[in-house]
């Protein structure tokens, strides 16, 4: 005979599971991530970057610069020709924000690079911080309507942006348009799976609030398979993602989050202390990729 205690516990568990399944903490993926998604159907705030201090080392957004130790060499490896940058080469960083990546590509590697972003407030910070670098330029522009003619750039970077976009096809088509034949696009984004749901979205963002509110909508994350298909269908030549693309992440993320909790959840940036590591062939979380516009694209 089942006791009232066991019955009550079972009922509570069932009710809790039912409530969770119907809450915002159990998001249902979009039927087609590559289709146009209405902004009102998302839970992401792409305007929060108007109010952040990009170059303040205490700000959580500044931790993005730490990933440059992985991203910049990877991007340079594929954008350059055997490590050499064409003397008259032109490069574009789409969604550059405050210029954390753009500036490093210009100052460390010497790229003649232009960053575009929809946030004028972010661009003001980028211009001020990089004012001494002559090969670094910024202007307002959207990934959906890149303000340059066809065949303008030898290479395009789109980093930490794709998982914020509602019309991926339009953005990738625009990148294809402004690339010269033979030009290269490099990117990084976050894969949509249980690992990223649990660690990046549910625990880090929603529960512990290590990130700004509504920084990410897990449903907007993009699997490597979706990204490969999107690039191919746009006309890009994509090699072998398992061989040419890379993963990048911080080691021991669960331990870092536990330490943050035990420390009273006061120093958010400490979750990302130290540098991330490159994970060749592991595209299960943050991953970077590359594709090329064919020489005979007309």
UniProtKB/TrEMBL annotation:
<dbReference type="InterPro" id="IPR010233">
    <property type="entry name" value="UbiG_MeTrfase"/>
</dbReference>
<protein>
    <submittedName>
        <fullName>3-demethylubiquinone-9 3-methyltransferase, putative</fullName>
    </submittedName>
</protein>
<dbReference type="GO" id="GO:0061542">
    <property type="term" value="F:3-demethylubiquinol 3-O-methyltransferase activity"/>
</dbReference>
<dbReference type="GO" id="GO:0032259">
    <property type="term" value="P:methylation"/>
</dbReference>
<keyword id="KW-0808">Transferase</keyword>
<dbReference type="Pfam" id="PF08241">
    <property type="entry name" value="Methyltransf_11"/>
</dbReference>
<dbReference type="InterPro" id="IPR013216">
    <property type="entry name" value="Methyltransf_11"/>
</dbReference>
<feature type="domain" description="Methyltransferase type 11">
    <location>
        <begin position="92"/>
        <end position="187"/>
    </location>
</feature>
<dbReference type="GO" id="GO:0010420">
    <property type="term" value="F:polyprenyldihydroxybenzoate methyltransferase activity"/>
</dbReference>
<keyword id="KW-0830">Ubiquinone</keyword>
<dbReference type="InterPro" id="IPR029063">
    <property type="entry name" value="SAM-dependent_MTases_sf"/>
</dbReference>
<keyword id="KW-0489">Methyltransferase</keyword>
């Amino acid at each position: 005979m089942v006791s009232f205690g066991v019955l009550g516990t079972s009922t509570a568990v069932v009710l809790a599971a039912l409530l969770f399944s119907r809450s915002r903490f159990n998001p249902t993926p979009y039927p087609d991530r590559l289709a146009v998604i209405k902004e009102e159907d998302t839970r992401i705030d792409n305007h929060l970057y108007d109010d952040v201090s990009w170059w303040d080392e205490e700000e959580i957004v500044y931790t993005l610069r730490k990933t440059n130790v992985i991203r910049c060499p990877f991007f340079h490896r594929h954008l350059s020709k055997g490590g050499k940058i064409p003397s008259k080469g032109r490069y574009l960083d789409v969604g550059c924000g405050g210029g954390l990546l753009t500036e490093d590509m210009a100052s460390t590697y010497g790229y003649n690079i232009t960053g575009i972003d929809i946030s004028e407030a972010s661009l003001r910070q980028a211009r001020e911080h990089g004012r001494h670098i002559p090969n670094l330029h910024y202007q307002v522009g959207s990934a959906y309507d890149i303000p340059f003619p066809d065949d303008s750039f030898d290479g395009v970077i789109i980093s930490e942006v794709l998982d914020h976009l509602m019309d991926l096809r339009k953005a990738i088509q625009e990148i294809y348009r402004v690339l010269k034949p033979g030009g290269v696009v490099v990117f990084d984004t976050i894969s949509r799976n249980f690992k990223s749901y649990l660690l990046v979205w549910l625990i880090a963002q929603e529960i512990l609030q290590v990130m700004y509110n509504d920084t990410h909508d897990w449903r907007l994350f993009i699997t490597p398979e979706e990204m490969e298909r999107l690039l191919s269908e746009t006309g890009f030549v994509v090699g072998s993602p398992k061989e040419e693309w890379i993963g990048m992440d911080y080691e021991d993320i669960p331990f870092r989050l536990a330490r943050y909790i035990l420390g009273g959840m006061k120093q958010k940036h400490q979750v990302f202390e130290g540098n991330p590591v490159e994970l060749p062939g592991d595209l299960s979380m943050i991953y970077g990729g590359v594709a090329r516009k064919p020489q005979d694209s007309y």
